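Reader question, answered in our methods column.
A reader sent in the components of a multi-part assembly and asked whether the whole thing could be modeled at once rather than chain by chain. We filled in our standard form and ran it. Here is what they sent:
COMPLEX SIZE: two components
ENTRIES:
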Amino acid sequence: MEKPLQIKFNSGVQEVTESNWTESETELAQRAFKIANERETRTLIQYACQRASEIKELDELWQLHDFLSSKRHEIEGKYDNRMSMLVFVFAQLLKEGWLNLDDLTGLGSDKLSKITALARML
Amino acid sequence: MEKPLQIKFNSGVQEVTESNWTESETELAQRAFKIANERETRTLIQYACQRASEIKELDELWQLHDFLSSKRHEIEGKYDNRMSMLVFVFAQLLKEGWLNLDDLTGLGSDKLSKITALARML
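And here is the structure of the entire assembly that came back:
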């Protein structure tokens, strides 16, 4: 069983666990997660396709391969959909521009402030 | 220092080393090696580009990534340009269609017979 994660904030140590999320927040979070994933996926596919179309030499193909290895590792690690990880995931996605604050409108102010604070720290 | 490789043939154990290649055979071999490499590279790049252009889902991008991982491993292992390995390399390339016998015209009949025999065994 997953142990609750703890992060240190101005207000002290606060647990960020599944039990903190209301039903409507959970739905909103799942939607935001999906939106970010689709945006990043679409952009990545377009980029890979564009790069592939410009390849003339084998070295360039292997550079694309290296890029995909790195992206695959990054994406598989980043999109962790455990509720306990969502604050961290959203902070990362916010920082990278795959989510914006409008996508998170409806989350409690406690979560929004954690997410934005974490995004600034990343 | 590289030890001479030995292969067993109908005629007995024969060494396949650098010293077996005449100057003109070496030039011809280098040209054939390059031709095969260019053919396979060009085909691979075209294929990767075509596959990339058809990708709609992230899973398909990772399938392309897996394919490139496998091809990179295969190609980096296959194009071994040590003279002592050329008979084996050419046999493989002949079998796979990246070389044909016309590309090897000019090699001594001893080498051609080894290459074609090996290609049949692969």
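What stands out: Strands of chain B lie at 6-9, 12-15. Confidence is low (pLDDT under 50) at residues 1-14 of chain B.
Send us your own complexes using the same form.
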